[in-house]
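Quick log. Single chain, no ligands specified.
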Amino acid sequence: MEPFSGTTSVYVFGAGGHGKVVLDVLLSENKYVVKGILDDAPQSDSLFEIPIKKNFNRKKLQARNCIVAIGDNAIRKRIVTTLDTNFIMTIHPNAIVSKFAKIGPGTQIMAAAVVNPAAVIGNHCIINTGAIVEHDCKLEDYVHVAPNACLGGNVTVGEKTLVGIGATIIPNVKIGKNVSIGAGTVVLQDVPDNAVVVGVPARIIKYQEN
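-> predicted structure:
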């Protein structure tokens, strides 16, 4: 599950809308003391009365606890690769996560989300508000399952894929890497890498750059 950490303090990287949600989850867990919020272009000086730092030395984060609270998968990955730190996960107290699921470091699981037995969720993923990840699903790193999206049993999702708000993926489907699944889409069959799919049932409308 979570890597060993020698301190209860944590830094949050990202002060945007998604950062607000991650910060709220951390504060609800009451597991870490948030030492500061880091952002390259902050819109304010603080968030929930916690100071936002713009000019900071990434090297000073070495061996510190940190979580990257950026909703965009590609940007989140890019920032993670610049940090040499101890990435922690955060799970809202109202989420339901099976003790038989495996969750990677850096992953964020929001309120009312459900992760069922034998699900394997990679590093730096987002399981957003009310999302469902059923039994035996496998999510690679940097996947974002948006609010109220539902993955049926034994679904595989490739790295950097976005499953949009309210989307549904039926059991046993394989979703490739860097896929974008539109809001409300119903996926009934496998989806190749880099595809953008929308509709009921899902159809490919274009391919995007990796």
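The helical segments are 17-29, 73-80.
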